[in-house]
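Suppose a colleague, Dr. K., hands you the sequence of a protein chain of 365 amino acids and asks what its three-dimensional shape might be. Before reaching for any lab equipment, you can write down a predicted structure in token form. Begin with the sequence itself:
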Amino acid sequence: MYKVLISGYYGFNNIGDESILRAVVDNLQGRLEDIEITVLSQDPVSTAEKYGVKSVNRKSVKSIVSAVSRCDLLISGGGSLLQDVTSKKSILYYLIIMWMALLFRKKIFIYSQGIGPINSSLNRKLTSKTLSKVSGIVVRDEASKEFLAEIGVDCRKVVVTADPVLRIKRAPLIIGEEILRKEGINLNKEQLTVGFAIRERKLNSEFVDELCIAMERLVTEKNAQIVLIPFHFSEDVSVIEEIEKRLGEKVYSIKHKYLTNEMLSIIGNMDLLVGVRLHALIHSAIMNVPMIAISYDPKINSFMKSIGMKAMCSIYDFNSEDFIDEFNKTLQHKEVLKKRVQNKLIDLTKALDTNEEMIKNIMEK
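The predicted structure, expressed as tokens, is then:
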């Protein structure tokens, strides 16, 4: 029995990171024989139940030390773990766990991560020194590889694949239809349904102002039905409530938490998805739904480039007039865009097999 420990941002009700864990666990179990998986989680009981794995509290030093000492391989799994923009402390958490594994002489694998930005010179040095000692590094985009080379990591040992969530299978649309109905949202073939997955912590920002104008125009000019979709529930509810306060019954929102398969199906029932959240855009690509990306981080731009598209703009230069133009163009060319994305996904999902191939080689050594 080969014991694998997965470290990441799990158990926080962030559907993007939960989708990553779903993809990583499914592919490890489906492609590697005789393995036991343990996950460090904020909510170990829920994680164990959802994914059929063992799980321990990511905040318990005693539990972490025990889990690291018992494992054969530590996987630092998916997402944007090694960056210090959204948090200056979280990067140290993930690096400390890797150093703990090194002290116990365990092997370490970086699983399709997005690396950076890392602004602190100390964090850059620590990251470079740590990753120089791991058994394998796979990143999800070229920008991450370039960043690692910039901070001194030998780029010859870095492999580029894609975000692991891209390998999740499409969900049946009926699941999302029933959820939307329970949420008070009735789909109408004669009416456009437009999903918005928004990330914004400043509720009085110009971005929110312009976003509300854009939504109101979609309702009045396009007879569109607007659905606000929280991807990181605890963070996104605030901005959703702010938009609801301003626009009232002109918009609908998802009020409850859902699993990866359910969220995929919800997205699949949209005629178009406007996304600031990376994994909302990835869900949209999987479900073959036309999308408009608004970037708050380089990872959005990198993903859109990987599927042959571009982000419309950033949250800092978004305006409703340009958005309506982009909306019209996207609808007009939706079939061409959908075909382009699906062709790109074939290559990206094939590339993801590299993770398990490298892990298998590490296990055999």
